[in-house]
Request: fold
Amino acid sequence: MNMQRVILGVLKNLPSPLVRLLAGSPVTIDGYTLDVNMQLLGKMAAGAPAPENIEAMRAGVRDMCLSTNEPRRAGVESYDTIWHGDGAPLSVRVYAPTQIADDTAPAILFFHQGGLVLMDVDSDDSFCTVLADECQARVISLEYRLCPEHAFPAAIDDALSLWQYVQDHAAELNIDPKRVAVAGDSAGGLLAANVCLKVKARRTKTQPVAQLLVYPWVSTDLQETGSLVSCAECFPLNSQTMDLFNAMVFPDGKLLNSPLANPLKAKSVKGLPPAIIATAGFDPIRDQGNAYAERLKEAGNDVTHFCFGHLTHSFLIMGNVSKAAQLASAQLARTLATALRD
Reply:
């Protein structure tokens, strides 16, 4: 039994005043007050020793996810498989509610967080069951290639290969090819945004029906302004971790200014799929996510924008920590469900 998971689950359900005693005085940044359970988690994590290398960092994040993810939704089944498309083999986890096992259904291509360096399909596993359940859709979570073992933009190539594979094999996968959405959080949001931009540029008949971008990474610009300054020391994403990601993804600055790394600066964002964008108050990349939502709106796209001011980066994997994070995740899934039905 994961005792930290048990402890966090108990703390999540304690009365807020009692949790406040443990967490300390409220933390406020830019007018937002941090959710007390998220604050307590950050306090608990503050004493952990810094990882010695990338493998230790990956292992530590993997252990954290086991403790912080909410329980999987009942009635959703999953399996792991490898698909062989035009590029590298695609390692995926496929989710589906049991009641649509043999039916043609919409699909959601999901790309996990982790700065293109950390995490895997286990990281957002619980949220993928939420998506499958709320949207009554097949969810296909991609184990894309990570940096530095694979040079950027290998992950984006994998995401585009997955889109094409699903379009080419929709009938045998029991998927409606005209109702395929893309979704991702943080670096996964970068992948989802790129799929939308690249598929639009191809002028193909079928485009993603919607895009869900959660605290998306859409710019490599780390100029010290706005939320990059005010949230520089936030948990779980801080400026030091962002510098590490940049060094591993863009060694010696190579491709740092590539359009693939900077959807926020794309030449044109007109005619993109309806977007659901969520940002978090306690997140150094909050401002770039907000700016991308505004840019999409200004270009005439349909945009639904949530800013969960009391939450942090990575809140999709914090459902066992915070009721507010759990509710926000479900709200995003239900909003995407509406887009898939329309």
User: Anything to note?
Assistant: The chain has eleven helices and ten strands. The radius of gyration is 19 Å. The beta strands are 28-29, 32-33, 76-83, 90-97, 105-111, 138-142, 175-185, 211-214, 275-282, 303-312.
